[in-house]
Amino acid sequence: MHSSTANFRPASVGVVLVLLVAVAWLLRPLETRLAAAGDSAGWRAARLDGLAGSGGLLGVLGGMRAMVAGGFWLKANLAWEHQDAAATTALIELTVAADERPLYFWLNGARMIAYDLPEWLPPGPVPAAVRERNNAALAQRALDFLERGLRWHGPDAAIYIEMGNIHLRRTGDLPQAARCYRLAAEQPGAPYYAARIHGELLRATGRTAEALAWLRQVLPGLPANDPAAGRDLVLARIQALERELDGR
Amino acid sequence: MPMADSRHNGPAASFRRIRLVVGHTLGAALHLRLTVLLAFIGIGLIGGARALRDFNFGTAELKFLGDFGLGVVGFLGALLAVLAPAHLFFDGIGSRSVYCVLARPVRRWEYLLGIYAGVAALLAGFVAVLALVLAAIIAVREAGLQASFVPLPVFLQACALVWLKVTLIAAMTLLVCSYAGSALFASGAGLLLALIAHLRPFAPDSGLLSWLRVWPNLGLFDAGALLATGQSPTGAWLAGVIIYWAAYAVFFTALASYAFKHREF
Questions:
Q1: Helices (H), chain B
Q2: Three-state DSSP class for residue A5
Q3: Which residue of A lies nearest to B243 if distances are taken between CA atoms?
Q4: What pTM value is reported for the model?
Q5: Are the beta carbons of B178 and B260 closer than 8 angstroms?
Q6: Is the dihedral of CA A233, A236, A241, A244 positive or negative?
Q7: What is the DSSP string of B45-68?
Q8: Residues B118, B21: contact at Cβ < 8 Å?
Q9: Rounded to whole angstroms, how far apart are CA atoms A227 and A241?
């Protein structure tokens, strides 16, 4: 009988397996420490599930993640052109599964899901209730998508701002939008407008005193020589809020 | 094999014999058409990476070039690490040169270690050549874009991680070779083991696939992650990775020597 192995002996294979387990056990603490800086096991498993059968697994495992993700992103845009909601969503998921590092994929993928997909309803009149339900479901999907982006990237101003935008424009949930803008404003390197919008949303939701306290808190950190900081704007808004509160 | 002649005993004599096997293995490996073919494919792919910029959306161009280039080096290096040891090992058996070597005062573990070191040297050359091409392409683009990529030490560390990864794959393949009956079987099993080691980071702590945790985790040698951060890892982390690599490399080579010692020709 032909065999693929030379003088195969079950006993020696047993020895090899026992030694393998012993070495793996000895190296386990070291491996855990080395991998501690990496991503979580749950997220890795989700990535594997996403890529299995898509043809991208080999490329990702081989190290060509940017390339594979770029290919998926191109296909997602092709599906977007054809207004194929299911394919667009699936391909956006594959893109971030292949390469979760670029924020570009998370932000633009969420924008597609939240703003474009709701407009692709079947032709003909659509009842307003159906449209609203569809909008809310897709907005929530985009928010869940960005939440996963946060799990990978950690707190990030751009992701929080995008979540705030979706709450503001699609779900109309102003308190949640205010919360997201505040979180964005608290991140290092956040754009100045995040703090201003948070203040504005506090005022819009009737929390005028909180808005005033917030703007007073951020004012000292705004440079006078940077137009993007809008220091004069914030100062004017503080004065307006003070007058508003005094007039009550 | 007992060695009555005292000239053949001692670490110095052993080292000399291993060095001779390394030289022979490296010479044979450099003459392999497979090595040349993979090197040309790698140079072509890395050289043509700029043409693939249309596939780059999420990252800056230089990062894309680095990520793609190191991906090519890692992928082709892994293929070479699987195919070259199997080819060289069974070529020695097929041409009966191994009998001539082992008839002389060369211990079997020395022969196997020589092959492994020869393949590791081949892989070092392979990674170095492709990394040089990649560095040249990146340097040209850096000048064109007036931008800078990651610092040179980080790039070199990323290349070193790729080399550590592929040499570990070569050690796994050599272990299979030591008891395999054919180069085809050894290459196939080596590829499978390399795939398992790549999938190892995804193995859960419990469940059906938890047994995968006994296998080395090649996810630790992720050069792309190093380029993504652009920062040098801590010395403790680097030392830990090297210890991890060395432990498995020594373990696989020792097991391969054990299996080869009991192999009947």
A1: 11-30, 33-47, 61-94, 97-103, 108-145, 152-179, 183-199, 223-229, 235-261
A2: strand
A3: A30
A4: 0.76
A5: yes
A6: negative
A7: HHHTGGGGGGG--SS-HHHHHHHH
A8: yes
A9: 22
Q: Which residues make Cβ contacts (< 8 Å) with residue A159, sequence separation at least 6?
A: A103, A106, A107, A146, A149, A150, A153
Positive or negative, the Cα torsion across B149, B151, B157, B160? positive
Measure Cα distances from A49 to A36, A85, A117, B221 in Å.
22, 21, 24, 22
Contacts for A14 with CB less than 8 Å, ≥ 6 apart: none
Q: From the CB of residue A219, how many other CB atoms can be counted at a distance below 10 Å?
A: 15
Q: Which segments within A161-210 are labelled E, that is strand? A: none
Contact in structure between A38 and B201 (CB atoms under 8 Å): yes
* A31 contact residues in B (CB cutoff 8 A): 217, 220, 244
Q: Which residue of B has its CA nearest to A74?
A: B55
Q: Extract the tokens encoding A206.
A: 């009737």
Q: By the 8 A CB rule, do A16 and B172 touch? A: no
**What contacts B158, CB < 8 A, 6 or more positions away?**
B66, B70, B150, B223, B224, B226, B227
Collapse the DSSP code of A84 into the 3-class scheme (helix H, G, I; strand E, B; otherwise coil) and give the result.
coil
Query: What is the interface pTM, i.e. ipTM, of the complex?
Result: 0.76
Q: Which of residues 87-126 of A touch B (CB under 8 A)?
A: 99, 101-105
What's the DSSP call for residue B232?
P
Residue A130 forms contact with B (CB below 8 Å) = no
From first to last of the 265 residues of chain B, give the pLDDT tens digit: 455 566 667 788 888 889 999 999 999 999 999 999 999 999 999 988 878 776 777 667 788 888 888 889 999 999 999 999 999 999 888 888 888 888 888 888 899 999 999 999 999 999 999 999 999 999 998 888 888 888 888 899 999 999 999 999 999 999 999 888 889 999 999 999 988 888 777 777 777 777 777 888 888 888 777 777 777 888 888 899 999 999 999 999 999 988 888 787 7
Rg (CA), chain A: 26
Nearby residues of A70 by Cβ (< 8 Å), 6 or more positions away: B54, B55, B56, B57, B58, B64
CB atoms within 10 A of CB B83: 21
Tokens of A4: 């693929």
Q: What residues in B contact A8, CB-CB < 8 Å?
A: 179
Q: What is the CA radius of gyration of chain B?
A: 20
8 Å CB contact between B61 and B141: yes
B43 Cβ neighbours under 8 A, 6+ residues apart: B129, B130, B133
Tokens of A19: 């030694």
CA distance B58 to A105: 6
Tokens of B212: 């995968």
Partner-chain contact A6 B179, CB within 8 Å: yes
